[in-house]
C-alpha cells in the first residue's frame, strides 16, 4: 500500500527528470509516483536488503521502520524462506494446474487454523488483502442471506471496489464510485453504535481491524472486540477481523484479536503471510460458512482465483511460519515493542507537539498535535492549510535523509507516524530510531529549519 504518500495536488508538480535510472518506470508505469518520491527525497536505488537493513547503490544503509506496511515481519530476505522457495522451484512440482489437490495448501491451512484457534476450521487462499476482503464480503452474504456490511470509521480495507466501499474516506473514493450499496459506518470501539446497526438485522458482516493501523494505530477498548463478537452473534451478523496488517505475530500474538478475547467467524490475513517475497492471502472461516458457500459438488469451485493456492505462495506461507515460530518472533515483538515505547516516552515526553506514543507488540504510533506556542502554531496551521500531510511528510523526509530511517505516516491519519520495523529488529536499531526521532522532534520545536524546509516542500508540491 503506497497510498499514505498520496498528495492530491501533485498534478501541479512540475515535471523533473527522475533522479535514478527509472526512465522506463516513468514512461510506462507511474510517473507521478516517481515525482512524489523525488519530492520527498525518498527516491534511492536499493541494492540488497537483509533483516531490517536496506542497502543503497550510493553506499547508504537505511533502517526499515515501515516493513512495507507490515509485510516484512520475518525481516527482508530471510535466508530460510529463500532456501525453501529455491527448493520449491527446484523440485519442479505441480504449480497452478487448477485440476489437482495442491499438496502444500492443506498443510498451510491446518497451521493457520490451528494458530488462530477458536472455530476457524477452513481456509480460502488468495493473493492480496483486498481479495481477501472481497471474499469475506461474498462469503458473509452467502452464509446469512443478507446484503449489508458494517465497517468502522477510519478503516483501511484495500482499494478494490468492495473493500473500498468499507472505507469512509473521500480521498480514496473520489472518482471511483458508485460504491457497494448497503454499507454502514460505525465509530470504532463504540458498542452502542454497533448494536443499533446490528439490531436492524440487515447486515451480513461487521468487518473490523482489531487494531486500526492506518487510522493512527488505534487500540480498542479492552472489551470491545469480545463484546462486538457477542452482539454480532445475537443479531445474526458475522464478525470478521481484518488482520491483514496486524496478523502473523506483528502485535506479539498470532492475531491481534487474541489479545482481546475476540472470537471471529472469519479472519482475513495477507501481507506478512507472504514472507515478503511471494504474494499470499488467506480467509479463515468456520465450517458453517464454508458449507454455506461451497457445500455441494455443484458449488465446489464457486469462488476461486487462478493464482490461489499456487505452490510458491503456499511454500512462502509455510516457510514464514517456520521462521516466525522457530525464532519466537511473537514474544520478541512483545518485549521489544514495550522497550521501544518506553524509550520513546522517555525521549519525547518534554515536547509539546508529541501527543501520545502508543501501540501493541511491534506496531506503534507517535501522535503529534498542533503546538500551543503562537509562532509554531502559525507555521503548523499554514502547512496544514496547504496539505494536511505536509507536516508528517517533513518528518518522514528528515528521518530518511538525515538519519537513514524509512517510515511513513498513517494513511488515514496524517498526524500519526507509524513505527513498524521487522520483528527481528535489534535493540541497537531501536536506539538509532529513538535517537533520530528525538533529533527531528527537537528541530521541529527549536529551529526554524524544519518549518522552512516544510514550506519549501509545500511550494514545490503546489508549484507556487
Ligand atoms: C488492514 C488492511 N486490510 C486490507 C488491506 C489491503 O491489502 P492489499 O493491499 O494486499 O490489497 C490493507 C493494505 O494496506 C490493510 O492495511
Explain what the structure shows.
The model is unreliable at 1-15 (pLDDT under 50). The protein has 17 helices and 15 strands. 41% of the residues lie in helices and 16% in strands. The structure holds pyridoxal-5'-phosphate (PLP). The site of pyridoxal-5'-phosphate has 16 residues, from helix 6.
Task: Give me a quick take on this structure.
It is built from 17 helices and 15 strands. The chain is an alpha/beta fold and 464 residues long. The strands form three sheets. Strands 4-10-9-8-7-5-6 form a seven-stranded mixed beta sheet, with helices on both faces. It has a four-stranded mixed beta sheet with strand order 1-2-3-13. Strands 11-12-15-14 form a four-stranded antiparallel beta sheet, with helices on one face.
Outline the biggest β-sheet: 7 strands, mixed
Small molecules bound: pyridoxal-5'-phosphate
The shape, in one word, is globular
Strand content range? 15-25%
Number of strands: 15
Q: Rg, please?
A: 22 Å
The count of helical stretches stands at: 17
Question: CA-to-CA gap between the ends?
Answer: 29 Å
**Arithmetic mean pLDDT:** 93
Record the strand order, biggest sheet. 4-10-9-8-7-5-6
Extract low-pLDDT stretches. Answer: 1-15
Instruction: Determine the fraction of residues in helical runs and give it as a percent range.
Output: 40-55%
What class, by secondary structure content? alpha/beta
Question: Which features characterize this protein?
Answer:
alpha/beta; 15 strands; binds pyridoxal-5'-phosphate; four-stranded mixed beta sheet; disordered N terminus; globular; seven-stranded mixed beta sheet; 464 residues
Amino acid at each position: 500500500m503506497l497510498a499514505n504518500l498520496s498528495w492530491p495536488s501533485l498534478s501541479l508538480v512540475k515535471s523533473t527528470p527522475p533522479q535514478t535510472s527509472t526512465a522506463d518506470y516513468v514512461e510506462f508505469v507511474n510517473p507521478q509516483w516517481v515525482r512524489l518520491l523525488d519530492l520527498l527525497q525518498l527516491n534511492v536505488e536499493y541494492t540488497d536488503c537483509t533483516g531490517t537493513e536496506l542497502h543503497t547503490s550510493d553506499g547508504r544503509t537505511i533502517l526499515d521502520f515501515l516493513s512495507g506496511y507490515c509485510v516484512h515481519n520475518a525481516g527482508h530476505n530471510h535466508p530460510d524462506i529463500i532456501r525453501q522457495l529455491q527448493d520449491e522451484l527446484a523440485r519442479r512440482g505441480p504449480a497452478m494446474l487448477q485440476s489437482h489437490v495442491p499438496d502444500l495448501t492443506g498443510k498451510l491451512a491446518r497451521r493457520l487454523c490451528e494458530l488462530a484457534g477458536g472455530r476457524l476450521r477452513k481456509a480460502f487462499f488468495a493473493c492480496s488483502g483486498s481479495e481477501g476482503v472481497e471474499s469475506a464480503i461474498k462469503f458473509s452474504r452467502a452464509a446469512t442471506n443478507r446484503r449489508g456490511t458494517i465497517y468502522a470509521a477510519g478503516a483501511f480495507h484495500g482499494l478494490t471496489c468492495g473493500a473500498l466501499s468499507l472505507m469512509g474516506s473521500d480521498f480514496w473514493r473520489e472518482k471511483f464510485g458508485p460504491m457497494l450499496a448497503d454499507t454502514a459506518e460505525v465509530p470504532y470501539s463504540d458498542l452502542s453504535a454497533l448494536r443499533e446497526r446490528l439490531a436492524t438485522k440487515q447486515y451480513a458482516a461487521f468487518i473490523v481491524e482489531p487494531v486500526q493501523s492506518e487510522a493512527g494505530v488505534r487500540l480498542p477498548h479492552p472489551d470491545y472486540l469480545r463484546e462486538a463478537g457477542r452482539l454480532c452473534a445475537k443479531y445474526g451478523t458475522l464478525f470478521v477481523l481484518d488482520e491483514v496488517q496486524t496478523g502473523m505475530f506483528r502485535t506479539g500474538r498470532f492475531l491481534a484479536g487474541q489479545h482481546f478475547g475476540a472470537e471471529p467467524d472469519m479472519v482475513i490475513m495477507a501481507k506478512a503471510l507472504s514472507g515478503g517475497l511471494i504474494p499470499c492471502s488467506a480467509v479463515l472461516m468456520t465450517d458453517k460458512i464454508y458449507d454455506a458457500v461451497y457445500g455441494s459438488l455443484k458449488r465446489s469451485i464457486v469462488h476461486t482465483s487462478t493464482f490461489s493456492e499456487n505452490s510458491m505462495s503456499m511454500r512462502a506461507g509455510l516457510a514464514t511460519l517456520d521462521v516466525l515460530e522457530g525464532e519466537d518472533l511473537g514474544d520478541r515483538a512483545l518485549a521489544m515493542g514495550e522497550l521501544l515505547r518506553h524509550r520513546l516516552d522517555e525521549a519525547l515526553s518534554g515536547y509539546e507537539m508529541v501527543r501520545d506514543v502508543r501501540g501493541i507488540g511491534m506496531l506503534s504510533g507517535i501522535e503529534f498535535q498542533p503546538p500551543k506556542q503562537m509562532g509554531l502554531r502559525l507555521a503548523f496551521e499554514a502547512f496544514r492549510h496547504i496539505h494536511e500531510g505536509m507536516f508528517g511528510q517533513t518528518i518522514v523526509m528528515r528521518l530518511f535523509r538525515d538519519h537513514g530511517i524509512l517510515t511513513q505516516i498513517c494513511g488515514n491519519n496524517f498526524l500519526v507516524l507509524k513505527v513498524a520495523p521487522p520483528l527481528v529488529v535489534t535493540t541497537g536499531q531501536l536506539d538509532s530510531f529513538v535517537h533520530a526521532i528525538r533529533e527531528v522532534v527537537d528541530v521541529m520545536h527549536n529551529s526554524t529549519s524544519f518549518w522552512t524546509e516544510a514550506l519549501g516542500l509545500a511550494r514545490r508540491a503546489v508549484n507556487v
